[in-house]
Amino acid sequence: MTTYRVRVGFHNPTGLTFRQLDEVLEPLRFWRTDTSGGNFRYYMEYEYQSEVRSICDVCELAYSQACKVRKCPLILVEAKNLG
Predict the structure, then answer these.
(1) What is the pLDDT of residues 37-83, one digit of tens each?
(2) Prediction pTM value
(3) Residue 21, burial from CB neighbour count under 10 angstroms (0-12, 13-18, 19+)
(4) φ, ψ for residue 49, nearest 5 deg
(5) Cβ(75)–Cβ(81) under 8 Å?
(6) 4 closest CA partner among 53, 41, 66, 42
C-alpha cells in the first residue's frame, strides 16, 4: 500500500473554498492532515492510500476534483512510503 501526500492550493482562497474541497475529496478517501497550526492560507494537505493507483493517477484524480471547487488549482503529490 502506498500513502500519498497531496497538497491542493488555490490563488487567494477562502475558508469556504477549503470546506467545499473537503466535501468533494472525502468520499474519495482523501483525508485532511494537520496543516501545522492552522496555516492553511493558500493550500490544504491530504493523505490518500492506494494499492493500485500510480502517482499520476492520484494527481489526476485530485486535480479533477479540485477543479469542481475552483478553477486552476495547484496540485502537489508525493509518495510518503512504498509498501
Answers:
(1) 555 578 899 999 998 889 999 999 999 999 999 999 999 999 987 65
(2) 0.85
(3) buried
(4) -115, 140
(5) no
(6) 53
Amino acid at 8: V
Q: What is the pLDDT of residues 8-37, one digit of tens each?
A: 999 988 889 989 999 999 999 999 986 555
Q: What share of the chain is helix, strand, coil (3-state, %, to 5)?
A: 35, 35, 35
Q: Which three cell numbers stand for residue 59?
A: 494527481
Q: Where are the beta strands (DSSP E) in 1-83?
A: 2-9, 30-32, 43-50, 74-81
